[in-house]
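Allow me, if you will, to draw on your knowledge of protein folds for a short while. I have a record of one protein: its chain in single-letter code and its fold written as C-alpha cells. I should value your view on which stretches of the chain appear to form regular backbone elements. Thank you for your consideration; the sequence and its C-alpha cells are set out here:
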Amino acid sequence: MDVLVIEDDPDAREGLVRVFTRAGFAVTAVDDGLAALAQVRERAFDAIVLDLRLPYLPGGGFYEQLEHEAPALAQRVLFVTGIAHDPAVREFLESTGRPYFAKPYDAKELIDAVRSVAP
C-alpha cells in the first residue's frame, strides 16, 4: 500500500513515516501542499495523511484542489491536526466527511483508518 504523508513538522513527519513503514506501507513524505500536489500528479497513492497547517498551500487548500483534480483520491484522505479544537477547523474537517485525528493520535487507530480508506 502506498501512502503519501503531508506534514511540515520534521519530527511529526518522521514519526508518521516510521509508523507506516513498520506497518508495511510504502511511504512518500513531503512537507508542503505544493510538493504534495506535484506528487499526486505524478503517481498513484492508496491513501493520503494530511496535516492542515502547511506552508505554501495549506491542507484545506490542498484537499479542495484534490477534490477538483482527483475526487476518488480525495475520498482516501485522512487529516491529522493539532488544531481540531478550533471551531472553524472542526467545521471544515466535519464538512469533508473524511476521518481526522487530533494530535497526539493513536498510531494503531491511524494505521487502521488508512487501511480502511485504501482501495
